[in-house]
TrEMBL record:
Keywords: Membrane, Transmembrane, Transmembrane helix. This is Integral membrane protein. The keyword Nucleus does not apply. The chain crosses the membrane at residues 15-35, 56-77, 83-107, 119-138, 150-170, 177-195. The keyword Transmembrane helix applies.
Length: 246
């Protein structure tokens, strides 16, 4: 294990990313455990931070940690030093606290335990997936694969990969588009297939009652909704079930 870590993480220049991801996951699990204990009003858990009666959301602490970790990381030049790893971990913990309240920041209201609050958990899962792909050595938009093709070859590949990933995102396929930034074939498949019925692409290009619109809604009911329900159950297991209707 030690040899693998040295070869694949430290020597490959991924130590800071590894520390970021570990701290990110640990902080997310901790804060979700904390808010669930507070939600249950468990007596032995400290509870919310409320100086002077004002509830301080943990996104505030996350922003402070991100500033400390980000500025500290910029000041350190040695990528593999202990201080570099520490600042990356601080930045990762802060990012987890911020993204855990992403929906609150987006809507500018406390939607943490509402259906809208599920968005925060989805964003956290996407961040973990992206960091995991980069730890495996994948690079966004196929940069490494295009490295030997010259300037115009690199520009062409990057532009193509970005375009197909954006089309997949516009079609409402968030996971396909995001993963497609790293694996071009996934983005191409997402860009070719039918859009989700309520996506920007479908609203603009699929006329109401058209064959494509009907097929998109049929596919949504048959394939997408069961997967979404499974994802919601996983989210509820880890982060807690929403109790407030949006």
């Amino acid at each position: 294990m030690g040899e693998w870590f040295t070869r694949e993480i430290a020597d490959a220049g991924r130590l800071r990313l590894f520390c970021f991801l570990v701290a990110f996951v640990a902080a997310f699990l901790f804060i979700r455990f904390s808010v669930r204990m507070i939600r249950r009003q468990v007596r032995w858990w400290p509870g919310n931070v409320t100086p002077g009666g004002r509830h301080i959301h943990h996104v505030v602490f996350g922003l402070v940690l991100m500033c400390v970790g980000g500025v500290g990381g910029l000041a350190i030049t040695a990528d593999s030093s202990g201080w570099a790893a520490a600042t990356a971990a601080v930045f990762g913990a802060g990012t987890a606290l911020v993204l855990d309240e992403f929906a609150l920041v987006l809507h500018l209201q406390d939607v943490y335990w509402s259906e809208q609050g599920r968005l925060s958990v989805e964003v956290v899962f996407i961040t973990i997936a992206l960091c995991g792909l980069m730890l495996l050595g994948l690079r966004p938009l196929g940069v490494d694969d295009a490295a030997g093709d010259g300037v115009w070859g690199i520009a062409g590949i990057l532009l193509f990969n970005l375009c197909v990933a954006m089309i997949a995102l516009l079609k409402g396929k968030v996971w396909t588009g995001v993963i497609g930034l790293f694996i071009g074939l996934v983005a191409i498949v997402g860009a070719i297939r039918l859009a989700r019925p309520d996506s920007p692409w479908a609203r603009r290009r699929y006329a109401e009652g058209s064959r494509k619109e009907r097929r998109a809604r049929t596919r949504e009911r048959r394939y997408r909704l069961p997967v979404q329900r499974l994802g919601d159950r996983l989210s509820d297991l880890i982060a807690g079930r929403p109790s407030i209707k949006s």
